[in-house]
Amino acid sequence: MAIAPGDEMEFQDSEVSEIRVDAGVVVVKFSAAAVRRIGADAGAETTPGYAQGIELVCTGARVLRDDDACIGKISGGHLLVGGKQMRLLPLPCAIGAPAMLELRFSNGAQFCVEADHWSLRPTGDLMFVESYRC
């Protein structure tokens, strides 16, 4: 099913396939982005799932930390915008303000970047796949 208005990507439990750094531009490619679908009714529970084909593009970027092996499952992370930690981002979104991204990976690696502009966008058709917890 397609990504719907109100769906949000969560850094924790998302999986990164690649981080590219090139001349002030950083691209974080998610092989599986953890997505929360908000229920249509007030007070409804969120539905966990994932989506493939999402990337976070950071321009005016300055890498502060880039450990080897920054790939795989994210154990924690947030975007710090104006003193506010954002652990969830709407899909898609653009933030035209200076911010800092911090990612911690399950393998112990860490990645940190400051940038002036942020864009979380699909690389193709975004499909939401519900996670079934048994």
Number of strands: 13
Radius of gyration computed on alpha carbons: 14 Å
| Major sheet characteristics | 13 strands, antiparallel
Question: How far is the N terminus from the C terminus?
Answer: 21 Å
How would the global form be characterised? globular
Oligomer state equals: single chain
Low-confidence stretches: none
Return the string of H and E elements. EEEEEEEEEEEEE
Description:
With 134 residues, the protein is mostly beta strands. The protein has one domain (8-130). Helices cover 0% and strands 63% of the residues. The chain is built from no helices and 13 strands. Strands 1, 2, 3, 4, 5, 6, 7, 8, 9, 10, 11, 12 and 13 form a 13-stranded antiparallel sheet that branches. The protein is globular, with a radius of gyration of 14 Å. The chain starts with 7 loop residues before the first strand and ends with a strand.
